[in-house]
Amino acid sequence: MRGGAALVTVVVLVSVAASAGANGMQDEEVKPPSSFEIPYDGPGQLATIWSWGRDRRDGEKALILTARMQSRRVEVEAATRARWLSPTELLVEQNVWPVRNGSGSRILRMTREGEVLEVLCDRAGLSNAEPSPDGERVLLERDDQKGFQGLEVRSLVEDFHLQANHPKPTGPGMGFMMTPPVWSPDGSKFVAGLYVPNLPEEPGRLYARLAIVSRDTPGYTRIPDSPPGKEPERGGVIPLFWNQAGIHVRTTKIGSGLLRCDPEGSGCTPVYAPGEHRLVLEGRQVNDHKALLLVKDFTVDPLEARAKEIHEVNLVTGEGRVLLRLPDGVFISDLDWINDAID
Prior knowledge:
This protein has one helix at 10-22; strands at 45-52, 61-67, 70-74, 79-86, 89-100, 103-111, 116-122, 126-131, 137-144, 147-155, 162-167, 182-183, 189-198, 202-214, 221-222, 237-243, 246-251, 258-262, 267-272, 278-285, 290-297, 309-314, 320-325, 330-338. The protein starts with 9 loop residues before the first helix and ends in a 5-residue tail after the last strand. Helices cover 4% and strands 50% of the residues. The protein has one helix and 24 strands. A four-stranded antiparallel β-sheet has the order 3-2-1-24, with no helix packed on it. The relative contact order is 0.16. By secondary structure, the chain is mainly beta.
């Protein structure tokens, strides 16, 4: 399936929202799922973050590892993000309380069995950790009480040493915030969604536009997110992963889904549309030609920020299927993959 789906009208969204409000789930009605199984038979292994009930800061969450059709829960409190370092280690981000200096993020290095090897940072203003392809570096977002300040590259083999600092860009309306970045396949660059004014049509609106950054040299280089001669993608785009075929991004328009963008600047083309009332939230390549996408279903609750489905997509043909739909009141908010499953 290629291209986009019909846009959902405001009337439909309002109707669904009213229905969701009238039948809103109560926390006491939602119990932990009886199974965390994902019907994924490889290659490699997955890390996902599950939650149930209302999406609250103190709500219960579960880190689930999946390999060869078998899933198991790893005991770690308040996990919000997990990224593989190797087939046996992960970086896990926690949302902790109380907040310190405006930050509630703690980043752990831990084994797949749940043993904490190291606390890399604890409420130090660093978040959204993204390990480099070789596992030797990590890319992080730097925030303080004034908000987003830039990106940092730190070593994972030299005591978390700061290797490069990329301050937020300056200029009218720029540098307000940025989407979590993703690495190029060789680890020499990364790409992020840089929020910039939508000039001249909507000078007061900020949309995420693709910006490529050299790992070692500060500076953001914008690249187009639309085919040559066409207007930029309305609503902006958010990068998900970067492979040899290009930068794969999600749109913020309901139904339009996954695009592939040329890092050299020739624009983006559609890959997969998740279907009516659907929005891609997250995604990872899982082998040479397939990806798994976390997809939101607007018919459940338009205001819900977590995913209800996992879609498996062929990146060559654009064909896809729903690999898993979660039970009522259960959601997934994060997904990562690494090759080489562990027995």
